[in-house]
Amino acid sequence: MSTVNSTGAAAQQAIFDKLGINTQKSATERASDDKLGQDDFLQLMTAQLQNQDPFAPMENGDFIAQMAQFSTVSGIEEINTNLKALSGEMQQTRIATASTLLGHSVLVPGAIARPDDNGEIHGVFELPQAASASRVSFSDASTGELLHSEDLGPQGTGLAGFSWTNIPTELREGNRKIKVDIAANTGKGMETMGPSIYARVLSASSYGDVSDSPMLDVEDYGTIDAGSVSRIR
After folding, report:
1. Average pLDDT of the chain?
2. 174-198, pLDDT tens digit by residue?
3. Residues 24, 133: one domain?
4. 133 Cβ neighbours under 8 A, 6+ residues apart
5. 154 belongs to a structural domain
6. Which of the four, 80, 152, 172, 203, has the lowest number of CB atoms within 10 Å?
7. Structurally, how many domains does the chain consist of?
8. Neighbouring-strand partners of residue 231
9. Which of 71, 99, 127 corresponds to the end of one domain?
10. What predicted TM-score, i.e. pTM, was given to this entire model?
């Protein structure tokens, strides 16, 4: 009996060798395995074929179905591996993309502005309906002192832009915080409107899931989602 078993084992090992199946895993390798791999599957398949009932052998369709199922699982594992690698590359790409915003200004809702590198302030405001008159005022954010104002005239529905381009040197060099106030007459007298300001991007960071947008550190406005940025200067 032992001779028969030895002969069968030798024949089985010969088949494994021809198929390139590694059956000589060390104890450490087996302990580290937490799932069946291709070699394990082929060993089980070969043993199943060798020990099947010769009077009721496995149907060709069943055999093909098992092979197809294993191929599907292997394909999914390979896709997962590739997706993880792609995720890492996307993480690096998105922070590189966000870093290109450094030194630029992005449009954020708010009323605090500072002169940009060209010594100018730019922004927009949105009107729910046409205005017969509109005005922008710039004042010192700390003292409330009025620094400059301009009549913008009639404006149509939607976004309207404003700017202050001849800012005095002492304000530009002092990098003072300037408060922006918008007023418009849409039929009910002059009413206050909320402006959006172009503010300088100080830094960019990326963390969390790859689907999350990079975060931008914007001067005077803190951290904002880069995905929420609609305009850049």
Report:
1. 78
2. 888 999 999 999 999 999 999 999 9
3. no
4. 151, 153, 154, 184, 185, 190
5. yes
6. 80
7. 2
8. none
9. 99
10. 0.59
